Amino acid sequence: MIKKTAVGASDIQFSELVYGAWRLADDTDRSKAHIQKKIEACLDVGMTTFDHADIYGDYECETLFGQAFREMSEAHGITQHVSKCDVALISDKFPDRRVKHYDTSAGYIQQSVDNSLQRLGIECLDVLLIHRPDPFMDADETGAMLDSLVTDGKTRAVGVSNFKAHDYHLLQSRMNNRLITNQIEISLLANQAMTDGDLAYLQTERMTPMAWSPLAGGALFSDDPVAVRLRPALQRHADAQGVDITAIALAWLMAHPAGIVPVIGSNNLDRIRAAADAARVQMTRHDWYELYELANGHEVP
Ligand SMILES: NC(=O)c1ccc[n+]([C@@H]2O[C@H](COP(=O)([O-])OP(=O)(O)OC[C@H]3O[C@@H](n4cnc5c(N)ncnc54)[C@H](OP(=O)(O)O)[C@@H]3O)[C@@H](O)[C@H]2O)c1
Predict the structure, then answer these.
(1) In angstroms, what CA-CA distances link 243 with 234, 235, 282?
(2) Element holding 293 (H helix, E strand)
(3) Scanning 20, 56, 119, 289, which has the fewest C-beta atoms within 10 Å of its C-beta?
(4) Is 216 close to ligand 1, i.e. is its CB under 6 Å away?
(5) What is the pLDDT of residue 285?
(6) Do the beta carbons of residue 216 and residue 189 sit within 8 Å?
(7) Which residues are catalytic, by number?
(8) In this structure, which CATH number among 3.40.630.10, 1.10.1740.10, 3.20.20.100, 3.40.1350.10 belongs to the domain 4-296?
(9) Which pLDDT value is given to residue 154?
(10) 298: Cβ contacts below 8 Å, ≥ 6 apart
(11) 195 Cβ closer than 6 Å to some ligand 1 atom
(12) 174: CA distance to ligand 1 center in Å?
């Protein structure tokens, strides 16, 4: 069973594994009943936190999720919802857009959050993230809007995604509320955050790292040469602990002292449930470094 973990220095708690809704619209079965089964599979194993974004599925995933979720009244008090905004896609839904861009203006953020709440069928988000750093951001305006969304009860807290330390420091310097998380790409196959300063500054600031694509978006199971090199060791650890290799790959992230919370994206009910085995994997420093070395193709200097 997946336990809860505090997010940053806040009183918000996430499940230690989060379910990401990005691929909901890609599933061959997009029916309400099937999405309810996926939500139930998550809840069965204690995965109570759900990651959304306005743009997922060309602006459709929040609606798909909300249609299923609003009928599951038993789930309403026990789930947490993260959503994101600022990416403005070229889409049939926005015929006036000429170029893909980011929009961190106050009006855009406010409208996006209202849309997300309406689509998801909830009154308040647990955490709103700025999805991508916006090079055209007016930090005073964006920071003030994020603070006012907390004050107005539209979201309990705020965070960022794909932010480097300098992006974070600028926005945080113009805000009263703390940014409590940064959602970045981290996996065995994309592990640069371990050493490029990203995990270091998140720990310095006591922010919780959320790891998107923790199984490298499925590439861990492909013929990618690094994945091929890793899999025998992952399988050996999996066999020794009676779990799937997915659980070992997730446990490699969860064992890190930064308190990484992986956001998984499977549409497969069995895989959703099996991911929870990551919570009972024992990962020693030796195990961790063995997988790190295989992922990088060389021993540490
Ligand atoms: N903030 C950002 O910029 C950002 C960017 C990307 C994603 N995200 C978030 O992160 C979440 C997770 O991303 P992700 O979906 O890329 O995560 P992921 O868990 O690394 O990858 C999921 C993919 O791997 C496949 N997979 C899982 N286990 C497998 C297995 N044993 N064999 C073969 N394929 C397997 C899944 O296929 P099946 O469905 O068939 O299991 C699915 O296509 C998203 O839903 C979203 O919430 C955020």
Answers:
(1) 10, 9, 11
(2) helix 285-296
(3) 289
(4) yes
(5) 98
(6) yes
(7) 56
(8) 3.20.20.100
(9) 98
(10) none
(11) no
(12) 34
**If DSSP states are collapsed to H, E and C, what string results for 182-210?**
EEEECCCCCCHHHCCCHHHHHHHCCCEEE
pLDDT at residue 166, rounded to an integer: 98
The pair of three-digit structure tokens given for residue 224, joined into one six-digit string: 């990618």
Instruction: Find the DSSP H helices in 129-244.
Output: 139-151, 165-172, 198-204, 225-241
Q: What angle do CA 48, 241, 275 make, to 5 degrees?
A: 25
The owner of tokens 């024992």 is: 282
Q: Which amino acid is at 288?
A: W
DSSP per position, 33-48:
HHHHHHHHHHHHTT--
The tens place of each residue's pLDDT in the chain, 301 residues long, gives 999 999 999 999 999 999 999 999 999 999 999 999 999 999 999 999 999 999 999 999 999 999 999 999 999 999 999 999 999 999 999 999 999 999 999 999 999 999 999 999 999 999 999 999 999 999 999 999 999 999 999 999 999 999 999 999 999 999 999 999 999 999 999 999 999 999 999 999 999 999 999 999 999 999 999 999 999 999 999 999 999 999 999 999 999 999 999 999 999 999 999 999 999 999 999 999 999 999 999 999 9
Q: How many CB atoms lie within 10 A of CB 232?
A: 11
Widest distance between CA atoms in the chain: 56
Compute the distance from residue 247 Cα to the ligand 1 centre, in Å.
Answer: 14
Phi, psi of 251 (to 5 degrees): -65, -30
